[in-house]
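User: Here's a structure from my thesis project, written as structure tokens. My advisor, Dr. K., wants to see whether a designed sequence matches the one we expressed. Can you design one independently, without my sequence as a hint?
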């Protein structure tokens, strides 16, 4: 249920971003989605996965030091779920960007062109939402790291 709430908030925020970008004639979002989005998202996901691998190694060392049956299952589960979500969000964004139609500009266009623009902006909303949720999953992983750093030996 909590996940659906995050999706709803992400869709609302990304709809607002895409909607506000259109009347102000700002081209940054379109330029970013067309040229820099995948590289940025791949770099964030790659750095995050490298940090997760390091974190899991530290977790195993901490588990050996503390002993007493400490397994850190909740932290491991949270890290695993957020890492999988981040990678799947990247893959889904790649697919959506690959099959996104080109926007049609002009004042008068047919109903099929209007549908194409609706699909274009709808996919922009979903892609921005996946990016925002990916950022939140990185935040969740960092939160798990800080929870672990509070553990006393």
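Assistant: Designed independently from the structure alone:
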């Amino acid at each position: 249920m909590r996940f659906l709430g995050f999706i709803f908030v992400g869709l609302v925020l990304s709809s607002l971003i895409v909607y506000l970008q259109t009347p102000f004639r700002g081209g940054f979002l379109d330029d970013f989605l067309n040229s820099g989005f995948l590289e940025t998202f791949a770099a964030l996901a790659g750095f995050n996965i490298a940090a997760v691998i390091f974190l899991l190694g530290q977790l195993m060392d901490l588990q050996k030091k503390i002993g007493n049956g400490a397994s850190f299952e909740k932290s491991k589960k949270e890290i695993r779920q957020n890492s999988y979500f981040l990678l799947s969000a990247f893959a889904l964004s790649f697919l959506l960007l690959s099959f996104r139609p080109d926007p049609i500009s002009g004042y008068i266009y047919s109903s099929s062109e209007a549908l194409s623009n609706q699909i274009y902006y709808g996919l922009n909303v979903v892609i921005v939402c996946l990016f925002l949720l990916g950022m939140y999953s990185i935040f969740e992983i960092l939160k798990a790291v800080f929870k672990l750093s509070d553990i006393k030996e």
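When you compare it with your expressed construct, this may help: Helices lie at 2-21, 28-66, 73-99, 111-149.
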